[in-house]
């Protein structure tokens, strides 16, 4: 695969990146969530495939990438994302112990996309509907005690649109003082970019979430 990338990238199969929503080891079943757009002209490669898929169709899988798991000893969990991150946040909430405390803040453009996610009683689930910038405002108003930050008891999962993720990183690291090592952060997508270009830009300055 690496050789194809270098010598003949045009021969690479079309691919899209998705979060593993759930894995059933006993029955070898994998769940992924795919959004199907109803508006004309909004179908992408994966959503178009999903509308035509039938039992028995074959696909090729690569990965998995990433390795986030909620820290079992964290005093406070902070999960931040948008519509693209919902499956990952949902899986993280389900993996947390019932005693977990913290926040899950998710941006969606339409109230109909605010799902009923299972979560520990001590996790406050907030849906930010409307302008994307509202997610940053919501995170800025979270009550995260500084003493918990100082003793590194805060564990953060932050993944969203690239430009917004950079702003969220600046707030969490520079303004809040949360240790970078205690934050899982990356962009899941970039406004105005198809996946292939977005993935390629991760190796360029524009695609870096951590400026240093």
Explain this structure to me?
Residues 74-192 form the SIP-like Rossmann fold domain. This is Siderophore-interacting protein. Residues 10-66 form the Siderophore-interacting FAD-binding domain. It contains seven helices and seven strands, in the order αββαβαββααβαβα. It has a five-stranded parallel β-sheet, with helices on both faces. It has 212 residues and is of the alpha/beta class. The two termini are 30 Å apart.
List keywords for this structure.
single chain, 212 residues, alpha/beta, Rossmann fold, 2 domains, 5-stranded parallel sheet, two-stranded antiparallel ribbon, 27% helix, Siderophore-interacting protein, FNR_nucleotide-bd
Order of helices and strands: HEEHEHEEHHEHEH
Strand content: 15-25%
- How many separate domains? 2
Strand order in space, largest sheet: 5-4-3-6-7
The level 1 CATH classification of the largest domain is Alpha Beta
Task: Please summarize the sheet with the most strands.
Answer: 5 strands, parallel
CATH architecture verdict of the largest domain: 3-Layer(aba) Sandwich
N- and C-termini, Cα separation: 30 Å
């Amino acid at each position: 695969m690496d050789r194809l990338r270098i010598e003949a990238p045009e021969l690479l199969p079309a691919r899209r990146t998705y979060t593993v929503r759930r894995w059933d080891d006993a029955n070898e079943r994998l769940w992924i969530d795919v959004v199907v757009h109803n508006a004309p002209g909004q179908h992408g490669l994966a959503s178009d495939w999903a509308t035509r898929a039938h039992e028995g169709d074959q696909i090729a899988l690569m990965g998995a990438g990433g390795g986030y798991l909620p820290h079992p000893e964290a005093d406070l969990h902070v999960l931040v994302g948008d519509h693209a991150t919902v499956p990952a946040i949902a899986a993280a909430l389900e993996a947390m112990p019932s005693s977990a405390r913290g926040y899950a803040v998710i941006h969606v453009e339409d109230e109909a996309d605010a799902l009923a996610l299972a979560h520990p009683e001590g996790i406050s689930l907030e849906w930010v509907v409307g302008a994307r910038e509202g997610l940053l405002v919501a995170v800025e108003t979270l009550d995260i005690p500084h003493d918990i930050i100082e003793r590194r008891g805060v564990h953060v999962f932050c993944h969203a649109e690239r430009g917004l993720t950079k702003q969220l990183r600046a707030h969490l690291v520079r303004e809040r003082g949360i240790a970078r090592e205690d934050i899982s952060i990356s962009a899941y997508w970039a406004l105005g970019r198809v996946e292939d270009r977005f993935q390629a830009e991760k190796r360029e300055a524009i695609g870096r979430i951590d400026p240093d």
